[in-house]
Amino acid sequence: MKIAFDSQIFTLQEYGGISRYASSLAAQLASMEGVDAHIFAPFYINAYLDKLPKGVVSGIKAPKIPNTRIPLHLSSFWLARSAIAKFAPQIVHETYYAASRVAPKGVCSVVTVYDMIHERFPSEFAQHRRTSEWKRIATQRADHVFCISQSTRKDLLELFDVPEDKVSVVYIGFDRLTPTTLATHENKPYLLYVGSRAGYKNFEGFLRAYAGSSWLLNHFNIVCFGGGAFSSHEHQLFDELKLAENRLIQLDGDDGKLADFYRGAALFVYPSLYEGFGIPPLEAMSLDCPVACSNNSSIPEVVGDAAEYFDPNDIESMRVAMERVLTSTARRAELIDLGAARCTQFSWNRCAEETLAVYRRLI
Predict the structure, then answer these.
(1) Are residues 219 and 303 located together in one domain of the fold?
(2) Three-class SS of residue 357?
(3) Are 247 and 211 in contact (CB under 8 A)?
(4) Are 293 and 299 in contact (CB under 8 A)?
(5) How many structural domains compose the chain?
(6) How far apart are CA 279 and CA 302, in angstroms?
(7) Is residue 28 part of a domain?
(8) Which residues are within 8 A (CB) of 207 and not within 5 positions of it... i.e. 6 or more apart?
(9) What residues make up the domain containing 35?
(10) Is residue 304 part of a domain?
(11) 147 plus 246 within the same structural domain
């Protein structure tokens, strides 16, 4: 079977969950007997493509030049479409949402929907309103649609006019991060928060729960990994909550450094109001870090019984959940054991096998 992946996400993301999914899936498929899976990205900015086995990717990495993102994206899209036609695949897997068809006429086209965040939280994505429009077009045009969780599938069917029998759920895999040999240099026990802190990610709710507990304040700092430097709004929030700024540490780094902070954390906290899947809890579990997380959207579906849950809209619920884990050695040990077992259920090999089974049904 010949499978082509287009260039879209690889000109939009240097790093990110969607491009990691598309590159990992393509590489895993390419390693399977009887499968010729290929990524067509004439120009790309993505870091993951450079690490794939030789022969999986056609294209060159573009230099970082300001104000070239849109021309790069469009030129790569059209060149990829031409190259895909010459490749003559049986399946074209679109890596993001395009207004125009990528697959040659008569060739089966599929697309993956990762979440419905743009539709659930439109006010937070006003500048990207066309993303939702193109997502609707792409899902209606596709011969089949993959969703990465049952929660995302439910939202897609509710919000878009897509036939139910055209949508399959295939869970994604995740990569276990490898710690470095370096210590985190954090002298006080800390709660770990990872990634973007804006809007629906509910970092503010987490801070309010933390600030409302004298016990948490006395015993733990907060480490925020990724997401960029604290904003002026966040500094104002620290002042409002009377949080000393030396209690909140923000830093960035590579996957090895992130693994070190998972390993060293007393608790990983995931307070998001919505996720299409949610990889960070699995990353934490794989490194023996207990997890406290929201009880909504896809998160319970992924995490199962391996976390302490809270209502992310209820500050008291969040505070109680964090304290319940952190004050109980037995509960912390139980979550570490449950997490180690849970994260083994998600692999790129399983993702590729289940995706390939759907491809075969389509052709």
Answers:
(1) yes
(2) helix
(3) no
(4) yes
(5) 2
(6) 9
(7) yes
(8) 222, 237, 238, 241, 243
(9) 2-173+347-362
(10) yes
(11) no
Both tokens assigned to 319:
């505070």
Tens-of-pLDDT digits for all 363 residues of the chain? 999 999 999 999 998 889 999 999 999 999 999 999 999 999 999 999 999 999 999 999 998 888 888 889 999 999 999 999 999 999 999 999 999 999 999 999 999 999 999 999 988 887 767 899 999 999 999 999 999 999 999 999 999 999 999 999 999 999 899 998 766 667 799 999 999 999 999 999 999 999 999 999 999 999 999 999 999 999 999 999 999 989 999 999 888 999 999 999 999 999 999 999 999 999 999 999 999 999 999 999 999 999 999 999 999 999 999 999 999 999 999 999 999 999 999 999 999 999 999 999 999
Instruction: Using DSSP, state whether 187 is helix, strand or coil.
Output: coil
Please report, for the domain that includes residue 65, its CATH number. Answer: 3.40.50.2000
Token digits of residue 127: 């500048």
Amino acid at the residue 211: A
3-state SS class at 220: coil
Closest CA to 71 of 49, 38, 45, 97: 45
pTM of the model: 0.92
